[in-house]
Amino acid sequence: LARVLRSHAAVAAAALVVFGSLRVIAQCEAAWRVFPNAGNFCRAVAMHDDGLTNDVYIGSGYAVYRWTSAGWEKLGADFNSFPNDIVSFDGSLYITGSFSEYDGQPLWGLARWNGVSWEAVGGGIGGYAYDAFAFEGKLYVGGGSFTINGTETRGLIVWDGADWSSAGLDFTFSPTGIVTALGEFNGDLVVGGNFYYHGLTPVKSTVVRRNGVFEPLGGGLYYPGGTVRSFATYNNQLYASGQFEAAQGAPDKHIARFDGTNWQPLDGGTNTPVFKILVHDGKLLACGQFTTAGTVPVLGLAAWDGDEWSDPGLTFINHDVQTMCIGPSGELLVGGELGADPKNDGNYQNFQLARFAEGKPEIYTQPNGGTYCNGANFLLFSQAFTDVASGELTWDWSRDAIPLEDGVTDHYSEIIGAHTSAPLILNARAADSGFYQGVAYNECGFTLTYVALVFVCASDVNCDGVSDLGDFFEFFNAWDVSDIHADIDGDGQVDLTDFFAFFNGFDAQC
Ligand SMILES: [Ca+2]
Ligand SMILES: [Ca+2]
Q: Would you call 507 exposed, middle or buried from its count of C-beta atoms within 10 A (0-12, 13-18, 19+)?
């Protein structure tokens, strides 16, 4: 730990020296910052960690895109309609949508990214899907009519990683019922949409599943043609949003709070539907196309603190905020058809996704450490966000607080890309072990990456992950003929000191 802290302090101190000499003309204070060229009409945004990087994904137009250091990367081809929701489940990326084709081939409602293309899940679901929600190790998918395993089922289906099954909603008397919102409250699954009855019980579009049984939630949230769109838990209470009126007959619109018995209004609600709600920075945020929340004028985004509404200061003139998520650094991302921001003097078509943040770089992919064998190559892959208002990114890296530079090291490994987001170390030796850390700069400041611990095991000569007799033979045979692979200490020569370096590692069983 002491080494980590020393490393932090040294890099930070070096960064301050460099930064202090810059003339700061960039816009660096916290503000809405736009992702460039985010296609048209962003309806879904989510974070997903594919095991290598943790990235922002959007559904824009009829396709899905991933944000990278080089801009937006399209995942595969187009669907024949919009993605509705993006969900990370069990290490894979899933999307729902009102689509029936992908790249000209039949694919209904739900698709999983396999790294190359989008594919149907478990033989497909045979219908449109709206919300998808990972709960208790399973993926719940809400929609209207599904066909799974050759059988039609309505409303809500479950993927357990191997098979589809019905979640057991009874829409016998809601034959056109749909599920458009899923969530969790007090450990129970909550389900919303547009369905008047569950079985013979008038539930008015909201149910909770307790002990395996779906029950009404208070008096429900119903409006003919409307639907419940989103759930969130705030101050230990369940909130719901969508298009509805009359929570318990109160003149309240589009957002409500469940007090444990009944739905309660939020100071009159909003003047048009609320597409999504989530908790951020101690407040409940609601997005949509509305221009008032309670009596407060807003532009598509409003904040509720438990007592009253306030304006979070979104200034995009279209005020069409379709979706939100929490970004890689805990910041808020908003997507939609936002339109130009008069404060930002920007152009209309670029503004589909924005984040609220300071101007300094935000690191959204952290470098991974690891254990490597003698002679291995490793990459310290990372990514950061900057925007045009805060200047271009530059990078420095250090190992044990010593700056990395490109070229062959004094122990015969080689460093490539020491001033990029992803330095590559070739032909690693034991001396390349240590605490690595990057620092990303722009004109507003710098941000440190996490520290990545790298250990190069000198005695794993045959690179099978363990030090054992196989390494002994491999090393001795190479040493005997002065093969450079036996240069364990990396001094460029195969001699007696390599014997000691090999056996030191061998004894430590690295
Ligand atoms: Ca080995
Ligand atoms: Ca040597």
A: exposed
